[in-house]
Task: structure prediction
Amino acid sequence: MLTCTITYMEAEMARWRGQGAFVINHKSYKAGQTYADTAGNAVAGDVVYAPFGTSGGLSPLLVPLDGAATTLKNASRFANDPVPCTITGVNSIG
Result:
């Protein structure tokens, strides 16, 4: 049942803001970058990265920007982890 719910949510828009730097496909992104799970869900400036569209592919440094992303985070192992509210230090440099 949980797999069906996650599969359904993958069809919804899932967008995130990174509170830390990420390296995706050998390219660095600074903190504050926005991400989408599919090109169809992306808006101008988003980095498209499909693993962020599943609860297993998330990071504790991602802030959900919509309902689908919130649902995915709540289903992930980081559901109860606090997200830093500021971007500072070495973790912010991509």
User: Anything to note?
Assistant: Residues 2-92 form one domain. The two ends are 38 Å apart (CA to CA). DSSP finds two helices and six strands in the chain. The CA atoms of residues 9 and 88 lie 32 Å apart.
